[in-house]
């Protein structure tokens, strides 16, 4: 019961051909979850190209009312359940003309057929489909990996809390629930996701998927509950089910009409949908078969009526086709009363309880197709009307400009929406303007009025073939007119295009007189002999574009051996080097020790998205660090050696990324109260965002050497940083008692702590070694410079506890396998 195109030949190019290259689609950039808008032609070029610096995912291309719709037939069970076909007025659906999902042009909920195109690596985080709709999927090409979570009360509450927390990037939602199922689909598989199920999707390789959403009569309570969840989560209107409240009103009216023959539709809607109610005799009413409701429908209608009755007046959204909604609700309650004792077994009939009449209106049979207009015969053949419509020329697809990519530097590129601009100019890149535009294939060639016989004149340069193989004339070439006689050989008519690439009218055509000149009067010039190279040898020579083209992969292997200073010098060579040297793969670690940090420096850092930054001994301020945190979610290592506390305080904000390494050595004025503030939950959270822990909770390596930290600070570290593996407390006023907090059994830190560096801690004694015996994974202990720790105590520690350690230097213990 499902029809799909041939997967072996179908591609993204076919999707573009059926929906149109200018169709704008919503694209999700998976790394930053940023929504963009891109034309179908541009996405096709990206999907089939090799440059995938960004991972784009198209999940909302609804192709109803397009030529692609005729190739896709969804499962028949979906057709038998979908409310859009069963309860929504069908005349509104038939009048839908606009292909896109613009709400002001939408006549019905346009969510039935979607095409999903994803490149390898795309990931859609856990979500519930809008309005609690059920979903059907069919994998045409590629594959998908689903994580499915049932919509229990506990799971839905966890989902709301997880969504409002703002920590979706840090916490995998499947780890929060008790049950989750991983499902892998390959090409040819189909999947139905019931209403309300929480799911995430990962694309292991390039995929083309067809699917759709639908509301049905057997999941009404869940659909209403998900709509309430969306209301509490403040989901924007463009991401919700369109006309959700209107569908509820129409569904209730359809049940009334199909079960009791009563309807509250307006007269216009009755006539358009051919559902005019006629009174029948009592005998016929008694003979009508009684329809039993299923338990799912009965409970769903109860919840539906309750929801419509208590909707606020501003959110009722009563459609234009419904008259007297209060009476509709009252009649619906009596319907439930009459069907309260329905037999559940007799309700299973295999047919839908709601439907629309399938009879064709008589007036539709008399509609005749409009006769196409024919050109007037009064006009002389070969003449062109002066007010004829102009024809815009199109790209030749062959010149160097057409085959070049966007420069991303000109004013038009910076205005494009796909590059972050407002998209108001709507102009192509300056470097991509076609040199030889041609007429479109749909343009009709107007005949040329020939007043006098003219000879056969050829263009000096043959015209290039167009996109579909037809030869056309460029703007600087003359028209080829076949010779009819040799009466006049002095005059020839030449036609030029105007500035708008439209053929000029007859009155504006200039006549060019070419005089015949004998060969004896022509000037003689010396002809330089041709090169001895053959045409085959010349064909083997590289063209200019091939000479200038460079293999990006090979150059990237060269660039990775250069330091950042040399990379900046290479950026001055050409635009290609400028773009390649700015690749984030070459800037994973940036060292700005002792540098002056300004706005341009921060902008360059954001563009290169490094994972490790060293601001040691720099002048970076609190506001600069905050600005960087808000735009660098991938930052994992940060060095703030010898920076002031006023700068370090930026770590206690909601924008701070989840750091794995933090170095605060010799931070000026950094004390225990400051550390407590740093390890507490941030207070600048956004409305609806809940952050209960410090943003440094997942830190694995911490250095507070040379600060004013005491034993109180070590107790805070052991309590708030359970994932810590390495800690440096050198030159701090800590004692053996504070060392014991790091090995306390009250936290999970002793199980994973492996490196402790405590050089020159003069208050540290041999008791610290006894506490270190509680660390099963210890691989490095550094007590060099601690005057109260003896070598004998270290040797006894190695012999007694057998932790596979040895002492290469006095008071320095390391594992033997390191």
Describe the protein's topology.
Elements: H1 12-19, E1 24-29, E2 34-39, H2 40-48, E3 56-62, H3 76-79, H4 83-86, H5 90-94, E4 114-118, E5 123-127, E6 134-141, E7 143-149, H6 153-165, E8 181-186, E9 190-193, E10 198-202, E11 207-214, H7 220-232, H8 244-260, H9 267-273, H10 282-287, H11 295-309, H12 325-338, H13 362-365, H14 400-403, H15 411-415, E12 491-493, E13 511-513, H16 535-540, H17 544-548, H18 552-559, H19 564-570, H20 575-581, E14 589-591, H21 599-608, E15 612-614, H22 622-631, E16 637-639, H23 645-648, E17 661-663, H24 672-678, E18 701-703, H25 711-720, E19 726-728, H26 736-742, H27 749-752, E20 755-757, H28 767-772, E21 780-782, H29 791-801, E22 805-809, E23 812-815
Parallel strand pairs: 14-15, 15-16, 16-17, 17-18, 18-19, 19-20, 20-21
Antiparallel strand pairs: 1-2, 1-3, 3-4, 4-11, 5-10, 6-9, 6-11, 7-8, 7-10, 12-13, 21-23, 22-23
Helix pairs in contact: 1-2, 8-11, 8-12, 11-12, 21-22, 25-26
Protein name: [histone H3]-dimethyl-L-lysine(36) demethylase
GO molecular function: DNA binding; histone demethylase activity; histone H3K36me/H3K36me2 demethylase activity; transcription coregulator activity; zinc ion binding
EC number: 1.14.11.27
């Amino acid at each position: 019961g499902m029809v799909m195109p041939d997967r072996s030949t179908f591609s993204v190019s076919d999707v573009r051909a059926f929906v149109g290259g200018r169709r704008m689609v919503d694209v999700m950039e998976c790394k930053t979850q940023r929504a963009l808008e891109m034309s179908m032609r541009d996405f096709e070029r990206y999907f089939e190209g090799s440059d995938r610096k960004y991972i784009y995912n198209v999940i909302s291309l609804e192709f109803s009312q397009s030529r692609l719709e005729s190739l896709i037939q969804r499962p028949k069970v979906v057709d038998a359940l979908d409310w859009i076909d069963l309860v929504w007025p069908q005349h509104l659906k038939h009048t839908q003309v606009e292909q896109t999902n613009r709400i002001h042009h939408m006549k019905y909920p346009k969510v039935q057929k979607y095409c999903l195109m994803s490149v390898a690596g795309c990931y859609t985080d856990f979500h519930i489909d809008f309005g609690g709709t059920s979903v059907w999927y069919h994998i045409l090409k590629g594959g998908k990996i689903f994580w499915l979570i049932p919509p229990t009360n506990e799971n839905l509450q966890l989902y709301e809390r997880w969504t409002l927390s703002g920590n979706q990037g840090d916490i995998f939602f499947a780890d929060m629930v008790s049950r989750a199922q991983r499902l892998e689909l390959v090409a040819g598989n189909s999947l139905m996701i019931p209403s309300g199920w929480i799911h995430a999707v990962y694309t292991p390789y390039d995929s083309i998927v067809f699917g759709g959403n639908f509301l049905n009569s057997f999941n009404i309570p869940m659909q209403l509950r998900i709509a309430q969840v969306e209301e509490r989560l403040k989901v924007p209107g463009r991401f919700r089910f369109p006309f959700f409240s209107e569908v509820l009103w129409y569904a209730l009216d359809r049940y009334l009409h199909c079960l009791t023959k009563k309807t509250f539709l307006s007269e216009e809607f009755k006539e358009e949908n051919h559902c005019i109610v006629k009174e029948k005799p009592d005998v016929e009413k008694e003979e009508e078969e009684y329809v039993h409701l299923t338990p799912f429908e009965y409970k769903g209608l109860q919840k539906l009526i309750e929801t419509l009755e208590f909707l606020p007046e501003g959110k009722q959204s009563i459609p234009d086709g419904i008259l007297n909604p209060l009476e509709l609700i009252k009649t619906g309650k009596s319907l439930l009363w009459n069907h309260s004792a329905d037999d559940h077994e007799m309700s299973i009939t295999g047919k839908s309880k709601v439907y629309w009449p399938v009879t064709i209106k008589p007036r539709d049979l008399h509609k005749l197709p409009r006769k196409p207009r024919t050109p007037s015969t009064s006009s002389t053949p070969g003449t062109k009307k002066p007010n004829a419509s102009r024809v815009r020329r199109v790209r030749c697809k062959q010149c160097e400009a057409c085959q070049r990519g966007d420069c991303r530097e000109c004013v038009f590129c910076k205005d494009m929406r796909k590059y972050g601009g407002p998209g108001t100019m709507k102009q192509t890149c300056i470097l991509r303007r076609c040199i030889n535009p041609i007429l479109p294939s749909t343009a009709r060639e107007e005949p040329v009025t020939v007043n006098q016989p003219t000879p056969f004149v050829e263009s000096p340069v043959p015209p290039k073939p167009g996109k579909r193989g037809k030869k056309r004339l460029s703007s600087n070439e003359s028209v080829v007119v076949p010779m009819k006689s040799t009466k006049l050989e002095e005059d020839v008519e030449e036609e030029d295009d105007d500035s708008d690439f439209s053929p000029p009218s007859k009155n504006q055509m200039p006549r060019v007189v070419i005089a015949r000149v004998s060969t004896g009067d022509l000037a003689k010039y010396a002809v330089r002999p041709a090169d001895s190279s053959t045409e085959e040898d010349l064909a083997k020579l590289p063209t200019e574009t091939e000479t200038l083209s460079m293999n990006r992969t090979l150059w990237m292997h060269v660039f990775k051996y250069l330091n950042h200073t040399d990379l900046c010098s290479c950026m001055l060579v050409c635009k290609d080097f400028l773009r390649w040297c700015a690749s984030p793969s070459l800037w994973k670690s940036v060292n700005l020790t002792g540098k002056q940090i300004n706005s341009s420096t921060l902008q360059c850092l954001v563009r290169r998205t490094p994972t490790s930054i060293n601001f040691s001994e720099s002048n970076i301020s609190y506001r600069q660090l905050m600005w960087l945190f808000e735009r660098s979610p991938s930052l994992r290592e940060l060095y703030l050696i010898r920076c002031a506390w006023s700068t370090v305080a930026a770590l206690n904000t909601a924008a701070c990324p989840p750091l794995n390494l933090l170095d605060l050595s010799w931070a000026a004025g950094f004390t225990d109260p400051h550390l407590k503030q740093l390890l507490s939950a941030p207070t600048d959270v956004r409305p609806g965002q809940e952050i209960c822990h410090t943003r440094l909770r997942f830190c694995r390596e911490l250095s507070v050497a040379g600060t004013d930290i005491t034993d109180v600070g070590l107790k805070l570290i052991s309590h708030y940083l359970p994932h810590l593996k390495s800690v440096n407390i050198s030159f701090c006023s800590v004692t053996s008692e504070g060392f014991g907090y790091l090995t306390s059994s009250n936290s999970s830190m002793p199980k994973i702590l492996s490196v402790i560096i405590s050089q020159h801690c003069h208050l540290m004694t041999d008791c610290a070694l006894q506490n270190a015996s509680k660390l099963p994974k210890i691989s490095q202990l550094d007590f060099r410079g601690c005057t109260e720790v003896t070598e004998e105590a270290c040797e006894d520690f190695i012999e007694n506890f057998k932790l596979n350690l040895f002492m290469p230097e006095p008071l320095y213990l390391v594992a033997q396998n390191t």
